[in-house]
# Entry
Amino acid sequence: MERLGYYNGTFGPLDEMTVPMNDRVCWFGDGVYDAQPCRNYHIFALDEHVDRFFRSAAALKIEIPVTKDELKDLLNSLVQKMDTGDLFLYYQVTRGTGPRKHFFIDAPANLWVTITPAGKYDGITPIKLITTEDTRFFHCNVKTLNLIPSVMAAQKAEEAGCAEAVFYRPGERVTEGAHSNIHILKNGTLYTAPTDNLILPGIARAHLLRACEALGIPVKEEAFHLSDLFDADEIIVTSSSQLCRHACEVDGKPAGCKAPELYSKIQTYLIDEFERETR
Ligand code: PLP
# Structure
């Protein structure tokens, strides 16, 4: 199959799948998700993503209708049905099906999976960024389906010809990207926002921190600001789908790309790890 959809035990070609109109995701976006790449039919960092998926669901008091091991088995078996092994996996759980009542309903949660061909990864060309105020709520550590501010920010980036929008909060503290984590290199040290309720604890971010540790690059998990972003030696953007990229322009002004050798060391480490684990 080229593009697969799964819903509560039924699966088929994604474009032919339908879901009940009163799944609570339609009323409230009442659910959580996770997403990750797969190469050569090997799902990368499966344990880490499934653990985060269960943490997100627990934060919303949603009981996932399968165990972690059952979910991993399901994902591995669905991947085997695909025409290619280079894939993007997306899965979500929603708080069941029922009438539009804000309080919880007494219904089992719904499990969705989509599997589509992997997008292209261009790790060579530096990307452009725009900045935009972070008007999201204070639960950004939970991977909920409520993504409207991220959608608006991503569209703003798209219209500006940029690959990503960088969110900042009052005081111009940089939080993260619309669908990525943002880090800077300055004088040989990596700075990254701490994992509080203002950012998603990215799996690619965790791999980046481990890469820095292995390469002897000091890491500071502390808030940094827009002025630091503009002044950075390198601006690094991480996400599971796009691994690790660096930016050369922010809001139309040159920024970053001043320590290409150090950046390249980190990126090579991460790509090697990804390729080794999905050989
Ligand atoms: N931050 C946000 C808001 C995201 O949506 C994502 C990915 O979707 C990330 C960070 C990066 O997370 P990960 O590295 O787990 O893909």
